[in-house]
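Good morning C.,

I know you're traveling, so I'll keep this short. The sequence:
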Amino acid sequence: MTPERNDVRRGVNPERNDERRGVDPEQHDERGGVNPEQRGVRQGMTPERNGVPDDPAPGGGEGQIVVIAKEPVPGRVKTRLTPPFTPVEAAALASAALADTLDAVARARVRRRVLALRGRTGPWLPPGFIVLPQRGDGLDERLAAAFGDAHRAHPEPVVLIGMDTPQVTSPLLVSAMDALTVRDAVFGPAADGGFWLLGLRRPDPALLLGIPMSLPTTGSEQLRRLRAAGLSVGLLPVLRDVDTAEDAAAVAAETPSSRFAATLAGIRVGAAR
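The tokens, ready to paste straight into the viewer:
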């Protein structure tokens, strides 16, 4: 969730939670990997056609999901993709990833959908979203402000995600919101050591401010901060965010019918000519 890296760093291995009611105790095996056999409906891991549900995901329509994102302007987003991609191509991939993410949020049955945006909106924004400007300098400040602004306007639990996991699904987002009915927080670790999702029943800037960002330990530090505050934390499956060309290829292969995959395929075709 950094401007370029989506706040995900290498090396995270979140501790296994103790007994939990809302999210099954451990979706991670002893090595920190995901055990698909333990994924139930509550974890949102029901099969979906092409990675996107045909119908809205199940859920009670409570809470709110915030997407924190940057306007996909060439040279300002996905700079780690250049090279091999040009700034224009990297921005096109960022726009597709953002559109896929917003689509998943739009299909999730929650009460409120928010885009905390740095920049201006574009054709990638579907209807039904409230747009708030990002505030703060460092990413920890902007994350804390996004949580706080959304919660002040609508005092219900908040689930926040970035724009770099276009493979995210509506049921997975609903499972995060469901977890907040029995947990204080929900945490989605990323494959490279950070986090792709953070949900808080009662947002507090102290839970985020001062967390070192853009480091291999960002995710583990954030999880440690939550637990040090005495919060019960539900864990979601590990997802891979798009930082590098290798990430882009892997995520596109995982969701071949997504906008992101189609955009990447178009770029490859153009390069081959």
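Safe travels,
E.
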